[in-house]
Amino acid sequence: MATRQAVTRTVTLRAGDARDLAIVDALMTDAFDPRYGEAWTRSQCLGVLALTGVHLTLAFVDDFPAGFTMTRSVADEAELLLIAVAPDYRRRGVGTALIRAAIAECSVGSIAKLHLEVRAGNDAVKMYATHGFAKVGERRAYYRGKTGVAYDAHTYSKDINS
Question: How far is 139 from 117, CA to CA, in rounded Å?
Answer without folding.
Answer: 9
